Amino acid sequence: MQTSKRHFLKCTGTLLAGVAAYRLAYATAHPEAKPDAAKQYILIHDQTQCIGCDACAIACRQTNQVPAEVSRLTIVRHGPYGEYPNQQYHFERQSCQQCENAPCVMVCPTGAAYRDPQTGIIKVDDWKCVGCQYCIAACPYQVRFINPVTRAADKCDFCAETKLKQGELPACVQACPTQALQFGDSLDKDAQVRKTLNSAAVIRDNESLGTRPKVFIIADAKGEVTI
Amino acid sequence: MRSIYLILSLMVLLVMSVIGSAVEAANLSDIHKNPCYKCHKRNGSMLGVHANNALAISCNDCHGEKQGHPRKASDLIAFTPSASQADKQNNVCLNCHRPQLLGQVDWTHNVHSNKVSCASCHQLHPEYDAVLTQTKAERSQLCVKCHTVVKD
């Protein structure tokens, strides 16, 4: 018994050392095999342009096959403000904020919730999720849910699987008729999102929590208390 | 022989169309007894809730008085999907419909108020107003139709 254990440890050690050496040699010999430069995808919701038509939410449901009883993206309507005939509404987007410092990832006991280092997108590994709902409880934005079909936690992933892989923009961004949604890589110096971030006054939901969300908001003044 | 068949078939068609229109007239509401209908039959029938006999609405109640129409000037209103005439058109609808109640039924009434004509979304001559039975997706596309910003 003792001999076989020693033998096992020796073999495993040798094997691991071999694999490590091979990988090191491979990485040195093929510098181009390094993955693409990391991206940091962000989304900007311009509330001043949003008309509350729900085209984004409908497109999201269709593209990602989201069952009717749950949703990855909801537009919440606040109002009306003012008196007839000059009434206005305020539209708020509720969806995953793609936190850089994500509470859902921190509490997930199985590693099903993770931050993709290549894109900065918070994703869910369906097969790793045990449905404990810790992430749902931890999310300060309350945007996670259990998908009744996959029985795993689910939420917006900027259409990583359904659109980004094909080189397209997320479904909500494509569907928006007023261009109230902007999507792009904030690390790319020429990206429009970066120009917008530098020129417009943007806010983020619950910034004080230190979650560092990647969904930015150009806030609508409608409904604000005027002094 | 051939011409007799032709005349016969034409007569049958004529009789059928007369019977047909008589049956149709029997089903039509009282608003069709309005003198306007003599000329405006070609515009189709007035169906739906607004043609209900109990409401006793006449063409003039919405479209205005005949005045010099058709030869001379008149203030008759045509309900078209236009923004320039929206206020004028909608004031007619607001004689009966209260803005507060419309806003409760659907929030989009509040934002379009006197800026978009009711006729841009609603049709009240057909039996059913198509906008009332739209799916969510169809309705969203109706918004998109006007609100689309051209991409640069």
- Provide the CATH top-level class of the largest domain in chain A: Alpha Beta
Number of helices of chain A: 6
The total beta strand count of chain B reads 0
How many helices of chain B in DSSP terms? 7
Detail the poorly predicted runs of chain A.
Answer: none
Query: What is the residue-mean pLDDT of chain B, rounded to a whole number?
Result: 87
Radius of gyration of chain A: 22 Å
Task: Give the overall silhouette of chain B.
Answer: extended
Shape of chain A: elongated
Largest interface: A-B, 19 and 19 residues
Termini separation of chain A: 82 Å
Question: Could you explain the architecture of this structure?
Answer:
The complex is a heterodimer of chains A (227) and B (152). Chain A folds into two domains: 32 residues; 178 residues, 2-Layer Sandwich (Alpha-Beta Plaits). Helices cover 26% and strands 18% of the residues of chain A. In chain A, strands 8-1-9 form a three-stranded mixed sheet, covered by helices on one side. In chain A, β4 and β5 form a beta hairpin. The longest helix of chain A has 28 residues. Chain A is elongated. The model of chain A has no long low-confidence stretch (mean pLDDT 92). Chain B is mainly alpha-helical. Chain B has seven helices and no strands. Classes of the chains: A alpha+beta (227), B mainly alpha (152).
Brief rundown of the structure:
The complex is a heterodimer of chains A (227) and B (152). With 227 residues, chain A is of the alpha+beta class.
Question: Key features?
Answer:
heterodimer, A: about 230 residues, alpha+beta, Alpha-Beta Plaits, 2 domains, three-stranded mixed beta sheet, two-stranded antiparallel sheet, 6 helices, about 25% helix, about 20% strand, B: about 150 residues, mainly alpha, 7 helices, about 45% helix, extended
